[in-house]
Amino acid sequence: MTELATRPETSADMTSTDVQVDVVVPQTRELSGAQLLIELLERQGVTRIAGVPGGANLPMYDALSHSLINHVLARHEQGAGFIAQGMARVTGEAQVCFASSGPGATNLLTAVADAHLDSIPLIAITGQVPQAMIGTDAFQEIDTFGLMLPISKHNYLVRSAEELLEVIPAAFELALSGRPGPVSVDIPKDVQNEIIRVTELPAPGRRAPDPVVSADEVQALLNRINAATKPVLMIGGGIVYASATDDLRQFAEQMDIPAVQTFMGLGVLPSDHPLSLGMLGMHGAPYTNLVLEECDLLVGLGVRFDDRATGKVAAFCPNAEFLHVDIDNSEIGKVLQPVQSIVADVGSVLRLANKILEPQQNRQWRQEVDQLKHDHPLVLDGKDELFRPYGAIAAVADIVGESANITTDVGQHQMWVAQAYPFVRPRQWISSGGLGTMGFGLPAAIGMALAAPDHKTICFSGDGSLMMNIQEFATAAEHNLDLKVIVLNNNHLGLVRQQQTLFYDKNLSAVKFEQKTNFPLAAQAMGMKGIDLSDCDDPGQALRQALTEPGPCLINIPIAETEMVFPMVAPGGANKDMITCEATDDHSGESA
Amino acid sequence: MSVANTAILKLTVNNHPGVMSHVCGLFARRAYNLEGIMVRPVRDNKKLSRMWLLVDEEDRLQQLIRQTEKLVDVISVEQHAMEGSAFEATQDYFV
To answer: Closest partner residue to A157 among B18, B28, B62, by Cβ?
Structure first.
């Protein structure tokens, strides 16, 4: 990059080939909007961008090629969005994806919406047709601003190169501050090409300071907890995003309170922790949901009381009062009314609480909980059989150990993994929770493997989900990532099949793939290894070898289409009404 | 004007292109009933706009206000009586 020689302040951290680093007086330089954008991204600490180039972002890609930022060329913009999400979810840092205008932007939408619902700091930067052509139905023109608006935390249409000086740091600050989320920045091509004179660059955007927590509020919260006889903590993704796992563990242990975890909170308490009650809700263990029937106080920490967790809200924790700690004020009272709430970073609240609390013991309640756990366990049917869901998951977990990072796609395999995988740390597990996007798993795994190369990355998928972003096999192969895709293959849209079986009188409609896909061959066609365990003489050994040798590999594991995720609460039903066996004719559920 | 269940909100917002879209988009996205909207730049500060909203959301009003406050370009949200509001002053234009 020729401008490096006269860069006023940041050259030292960029390159050692720079010979004129001792410039003291800020100099005015001429930069294009695209060059300015790339410099601002470098100053944000961005080292890798996933994207796809096209007509309306050509100037960005021209500038990017002169930068030290690595580019990951996805095979589809949705793949690029989820690769960036994978990087963001495993690091907690804001990550960037690029797409062109029109179809490039519309292809990104799903990944942005997914980031919005799971509070992921994603910066989606799109090219747009030149401003003079906006509104003329120009080639590849689409109202990206209008499309991104309801699915992002905030979004911009940049109207001049100068605006980039404000918008780019602001986009990062917004994505990272408070409750994280995606920010969309749409940049018309003429803005990318506009030459401006720049003397000083703005400070990078960082997470804004969190609200101050008052000790009185925290003491009041502790008083309510102390007054309860059957308290339960409900811990969610907010604990992960606040990096408050240790604070939470200390709090739960000192206060001696059992904790249910939301889907997004899995890993905060290790599965085998004595206070862990596992995942609550639609596919929670029987004892988990039954403990919530009994509790008299539920303390929501970094949760949003999603319907998959609460079931029918009116029947959720029928004997309990609610406390709610969340950084998003609009989550307080959205689903249910707490008797006390604190709008703050949950980590700040827990750290303060840990300082002032008096350790408690809830012997009687813990005994009652242990009894429920004993009487109503999570049954992992087939956990010793490799060609059954829980058995396959257990075999993989046993081989790869605690250091592996896990992604999933969406469907039955996702719920089996959420129920049964022995997660031990936050950010070990990333999955599409709120939007439930089939096709998330493979590109998110690529992002995870790129950003955390010292960990093996395992993507559990299904034959339905994997087909939705299967083109990213080529991206995984190109980067030779230590990434394994495990397909629990029932040749069906299994979770839909399950709901049709349970709630639609076994009327199976459009859930079977008449044309089977040979996934190992598909992987090989795109440069990955691919094996089918049912073809192996010693499937257990073949699995071990495929998982332990480095490099990308697809592992197909056939399972029966009759396998179901149990227990299951019917959508819209109360969590106490769990279906734990094959459907009978009297099961009916409202769709929700 | 029938105002039995309606509330009036007085917003101060940044005077940017797109701010109206963000407010209206929020209301559409969350299915809040919006009965009236008026907006103009603030007379003595062109960087700000004043937005008046007439909303029909008795049960969800607090939630609606919290969601509106969350918008990046919304600086403040106040509840206002019909008396002295833009809607009172302009009733004759909506006959």
So the answer is: B18
